Amino acid sequence: MKPAQNSLNNKQSSEFKALVKLLDAKDYKKGLRNTEKLLEQVPDNWEVVSLKAIFMYYNDEQQKGLELAKQAVFKNLGSDFCWHIYGLIYKAQKNYIEAVKCFLQAIKKGEENIQLERDTANLQIHTRDFEGNAQLRHKILTKKSNMIVNWIAFIFSQHLIGNYEIAFKAINSAEQLIQKDQQNPIKKVEMNEFKLYQIQLAIDAKDYQKAKQNIITFKNDITDMVAYYELQYDLFMKLGSNQEAVESAKHLLELQPQNWKYYVLLKKANPQFDLSVYDNTLVQGQLLAELNGDKFRESFLKFIDPFFQKSLPSLFREIKHLYRQKEKLDVIKEAFESYLTSGPIQKLWALMLLAQHHYQIKQYAKSLELVEEAIAHTPTLHELYLIKAKALHKQEKFKEAYEATDRARQLDLADRYLNNKTIKYALRANMVYLSQELLRMFLRDGSNPYELQMIWFELGVGRTFLRLNYLGPALTQFYLIFKHYQEMYDDQLDFYQFSIRKYTLRSLLQMFDAMDNRYSAKYFIETAGLMIEGLNRLKLKLQDNNKVEQKKLTPKEKKQLQKLQQKQEEEKQLREQFSIEGHIYSIELQKKFDLSGEYLLSKLKTEQDIIKMQNQFAQVLIHTNYNNKEINFQAFKQLVSFYIQQNRPLLCVKLLNKLRNNQTETNQIVNHKYQLMIIQYLNQYKGPLLQYIQEYQQDLNKFDADFWKSVEIKSQLDKTIKLHCEHILQNKPFNIQLESNELDFLQEYPTAKTTNPFYTNDPNLEWQNNQISQFQSSQSTQSVSQQQQ
Amino acid sequence: MVSIRRAEMQDLQHMQHCNLWCLPENYTFKYYLYHGMVWQSLLYVAEDINSGRIVGYVLAKQDEEDEEGSKLEHGHITSLSVLRTHRKLGLANKVMQSTHRDMDKIFESHYVSLHVRVSNRAALGLYRDKLGYETFDTEEKYYADDENAYNMRKWFRKKAEKQ
């Protein structure tokens, strides 16, 4: 950073320089002290004030620091130094858009500062301001055109805004510079990357002749043949040269014969191609789906036999895709049964596979019966207990399911997978305390799931707390997950310049895609859905409380309220000694991650606050898409009442399409209810957006009647939902939540007063304590026996 | 069915997840991103094509300098794991062979190195017997729980070419 000089005498000027050094060295305390001393001499020097602002910012006075920096800028608009500091504060706040604006002002007003220009260009990439980035990269290039990295950055910036002709020209210059520069010769692997990138660039520019030429002339410079043939395949398909594309796919299969995608590419280029010439398990297994009748039976038996001979426990996963074809089920079952009498080991595998078979076709009692038989045969096979746990879970016997996984875990205490599975089932049985103890066994001293971004665990804990209507700790877990996804995005910052230096621009392009779509992941979608639901409950609770406050209380109600407040006070004291939400971590850590949710709840005091946060999640969720319809649906349905309440007709239309696209046999009835709600809302809409809405308006009664004609009502739940639908048609209120078995805990909802379910006479806590002391003693005996070995 | 393919950037978060389900040595997302941005061609994953889940991966990198401080381009296996449910299918072997090929062909590595717990017999069997690694030396208390590690190497080029 360039220190300012004006109006300071020599001594002051060197003090100023020393302050800038303190800032670089991150010595903020001393910095603030010394700045204040200097300010006593020159109270009107706004550049010194700027320094004070940033030191304040880093001394926990964020808001004041930012305001002071802003003031300094406006008092001294011409100072690049003040703009630079102002930008640095925004950058520290992760407000990159504002930071870029400030840095651009600093660059405009100041002298050369190539480092600042480069940082700003990287921030522009980070905010995906590709136009601004291209301008700045051009400026940097004209200043320092002897540096190859500036050329590469410039080419890439032109690529991003689609100025391909300029990019191609710049590539020629860059190539010449590379040839000339003997002092820093380009590495072979960098040349490989650069050439691959040029092919990609030509394809992106739709200049297929150039791409074809590149593919031929660059071949000797390219060592990454996987990338080479993938680009070649892509190009030939775009040119319509399918026969040549087939050859590319064959090359790829020579390199990676286990990559199923390449077989798909081969078929795409030539639908007549007979994949059975590739004689491996992958192809054989996939091709089973295409066979029928005796041919299928014969091939299936041939396929499964080696798994029995080699005792491979993973067979079921290899053939699971066949369960989409109902006509194959009997053949599969008979094939497994044929091994029941082939010998004791074969019998064991046959029993296990049959248990999996019955699980898959939803006959859980039969599945359990078979797996019990297998366990009686061989009690030491951990796979059996996991199958048992799955079936018990489906029967909603959560504690028993936990016990089954725990048996599996005890068979191999060093295995993290089995430990994690046990945690998962412990959480499903509402045993948060126990799950943390289990997790601890695989956590290094001092580490914790939050710093390790252990999303699956956070989601499980959050889901459990939500199930128990323990809202603060639940929302905190979801919020932490949301932050991980934001961190992920910001992790990119270090790599823009880095990757330009390394020529790995193709990876950089892929990173943009992956990070821009990072929310389209199972865990995020689940999290967002649960967060919105949790916030809904918080909103209802708030409304309840407001009712209590507004109406005059009867003496009896007053007494009740007093009792409740007393209870809350007791719990608060208990929490200080012991917290269920994070008892294995230090108090500091619990505070740092706000595990009790106290801080988060303090930001959610009004309905407006809650809606704002719901919106934060909703905005992201509505644009996601994941390849599992059930998971998508469970999350999207949370948005329905939210967007209706918010009166957002266009988003409701988008949501309606999302619901329709994620309809499955399992969710069709619930799905219909939500569609009905949206259409009813759209039908009543009369605002200015009507022309976009009209095509979705329809006769609600007919829509509903047609639907019920097409489905079979099987369960009590289906009947309840049908009742809901009738209420919707009559505009009557109903309790929206009672639609899945997962929500049985909601009986007392929405007026549930539970704050901490674990404190008051919780039988679970005792049970969990028992479990914990059990596994602690078994662990110590195991380590003793290990030492003896 | 499991497909073995080079990792894409969107696999990184799922590789991290897989790691958290297999090993006690875990890293934040940024470390995966770092590997992806520099050595994407060395990252391979095993994907269950029915569910789309990542069930195994190898995270690898290159180093220009030897442990002894001399210049010698070589690869290093940062992390390798396969979910318990997908063991015995040879997946670890397959992802390793793919990354070995690319270390050799793309980066002209002289050798590849890795660390393994001295007690991990299954992994030792894979590295030594199937993949051709040799024990280079033993590092005392390499792991957080004080277990020793074998430092193993597999040579792609003859040791004579070293200079």
From TrEMBL, chain A:
Source organism of the structure: Paramecium sonneborni
Leader sequence residues: none
Name of the molecule in the record: Uncharacterized protein
Presence of the UniProt keyword Coiled coil in the record: yes
Swiss-Prot/TrEMBL keywords: Coiled coil, Repeat, TPR repeat
Coiled-coil ranges from the UniProt annotation: 532-581
Annotated Gene Ontology cellular component terms: cytoplasm
Superkingdom of origin organism: Eukaryota
InterPro entries, alphabetized: NatA_aux_su (IPR021183), TPR_rpt (IPR019734)
UniProtKB/TrEMBL annotation, chain B:
Domain annotation N-acetyltransferase: ranges: 2-157
PROSITE patterns: GNAT (PS51186)
InterPro entries assigned to the protein according to its UniProt record, in alphabetical order: Ard1-like (IPR045047), GNAT_dom (IPR000182)
Keywords: Acyltransferase, Transferase
GO cellular component: NatA complex
Protein family (similarity comment): Belongs to the acetyltransferase family. ARD1 subfamily.
PANTHER family reported in the protein's UniProt record: N-TERMINAL ACETYLTRANSFERASE (PTHR23091), N-TERMINAL AMINO-ACID N(ALPHA)-ACETYLTRANSFERASE NATA (PTHR23091:SF4)
Record's protein name: N-acetyltransferase domain-containing protein
Organism: Paramecium sonneborni
Phylogenetic classification of the source organism: Eukaryota, Sar, Alveolata, Ciliophora, Intramacronucleata
